[in-house]
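S1.2 Input.
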Amino acid sequence: SGSVCINDTMKQACNLKLPFGGVGDSGSGRYRGRTGVETFSYRRTISKRYFVADPFEALPPREGKLAFLMKWLG
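S1.3 Output.
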């Protein structure tokens, strides 16, 4: 695995958009460009709700006097 350049080593080394580096114990990993960002990034899921019909729906369940008061005020 890696990249191949024929008759022009500077073309590969100077292009900052191409990944550069080795794989495993033979190199330091891939860096530069989009590949570098993906190498050093950790994807996470973000979930956002834009509309809540009932604002109390997002709250934890209530019991006893607090539940009665919330219903009475709501």
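S1.4 Remarks. The mean pLDDT is 70.
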